[in-house]
Every structure is written in structure tokens, then in C-alpha cells.
Design a protein that fits this description.
alpha+beta, 8 strands, eight-stranded mixed β-sheet, about 200 residues, globular
Length: about 200
């Protein structure tokens, strides 16, 4: 099972439960300055096979948290959006019998509101691991290859930029400014509005 394989790879692993859903909290993987909050059980669902990703049909989703967002804090009310978002995404892909891959984007919530007081973004994008590319390389679990997708909050203008010019252009912009999947409360919008591009 996934828990056993994660325990082999990481020094510490804390199972969490919120509203009947199970999660894993992994503090400071390989002493990096971050913590992982990951879904549990999603990998048991085989996503419909895509031609380009035939071996990547079993996945788990994760948020990469700042190192000061510790396990004792994220269970407080102000951080419940983390669990709610992961639960919503997991439920959606299973119930709709659909699939997730790098570059998929969606609104952060039905109301179009910012994620939280800490995170001002209103959209989400799924991304392969970047900051934790080595630590979250695919692993073999119960005869299946399991890969990982990060949930990256993005601003509305960034979402529109991706829709207009493609995923690669947005990822390239993130690379230029060294933006990874690691959540950053202080990150600013990387795409100016259309009017600001025209007039200044």
C-alpha cells in the first residue's frame, strides 16, 4: 500500500483524517524547506488511459506547503481549504470517471473567490513535481506505478494567459521567475492585465 512505500522513502509520515477522508502529511522531505500534504487512496483509481500517458494512470495529488505550515497548524479552521480542495479534486476525478494531467486548470471554488486569507489566487493548475522532482518521482505500489501531481494556485490573469497561449507558455513564465509548486503567500501575479499591457 502507498503508506508503506512512502515510509520507505521519507523519514517521517503523519496520517491525517478530515471529514472522513485520509491524507498524508510529510514534514521536510529530505530536509527540504517545505512540507507535503497528500491525498490517500486516489492511486487505487485507474484514470482512463491517454495515448501520451499510458503508464501514468494512477496518481496522488499534493500541496507543497511552506515549512512553517506545520501539522499542528494546518488542522485549524484557517487551513481547512487545503483539505477541502484535495477532497474536491479527488472526488471529481473518480465520480466523473475522468483523468488529471499536468496543465489541467480549474476554478479554485464555485464562487470564484480567493482560496483563503493567505492565498489570493482564484484558480488551480495541476503540475508535475518541480521543487520535489526527485523526492516525488513515481513509485511502484501494489503492482502499479503511482505518480504525483501538485496543486498549484494561480491568479486569474495567469489562467487566462494559459488559455490563450498554452500550458507551456505559462510553465515557461513560472520557470523564468522560479515559481514552483511550493505555496508562497507573498507571490504576486506574473501576468499583467490586458489594459496594463497596452497602456503601461
Amino acid at each position: 500500500m502507498l503508506k508503506n512505500e512512502l515510509e520507505k522513502r521519507f523519514a517521517a509520515l503523519h496520517p491525517l483524517s478530515q471529514d472522513g477522508e485520509d491524507y498524508f502529511f510529510i514534514p521536510k522531505p529530505d530536509d527540504t524547506a517545505c512540507n507535503i500534504l497528500m491525498t490517500s487512496g486516489l492511486n487505487e483509481y485507474g484514470m482512463p488511459t491517454q495515448v501520451s500517458t499510458k503508464s501514468l494512470v494512477h496518481k496522488e495529488l499534493y500541496f507543497l506547503l511552506p515549512e512553517y505550515w506545520v501539522v499542528a497548524d494546518i488542522e485549524k479552521e484557517q487551513f481547512q481549504w487545503l483539505f477541502q480542495t484535495l477532497r474536491k479534486l479527488k472526488k471529481h476525478v473518480i465520480e466523473k470517471k475522468t483523468w488529471f494531467a499536468e496543465g489541467h486548470t480549474m476554478r479554485a471554488n464555485e464562487e470564484g473567490k480567493q482560496l483563503s486569507d493567505q492565498m489570493k489566487q482564484t484558480y488551480l493548475m495541476l503540475s508535475d513535481p518541480v521543487f520535489l522532482e526527485k523526492e516525488l518521482a513515481p513509485m511502484f505500489v501494489d503492482s502499479r506505478d503511482v505518480s504525483f501531481l501538485s496543486v498549484v494556485p494561480i491568479f486569474r490573469n495567469e489562467f487566462q494567459h494559459k488559455q490563450a497561449f498554452g500550458t507551456d507558455k505559462l510553465i515557461s513564465l513560472f520557470e523564468t521567475y522560479q515559481v514552483t509548486e511550493r505555496l508562497d503567500e507573498y507571490r504576486t501575479n506574473l501576468v499583467k492585465s490586458r489594459w496594463r499591457r497596452i497602456f503601461g
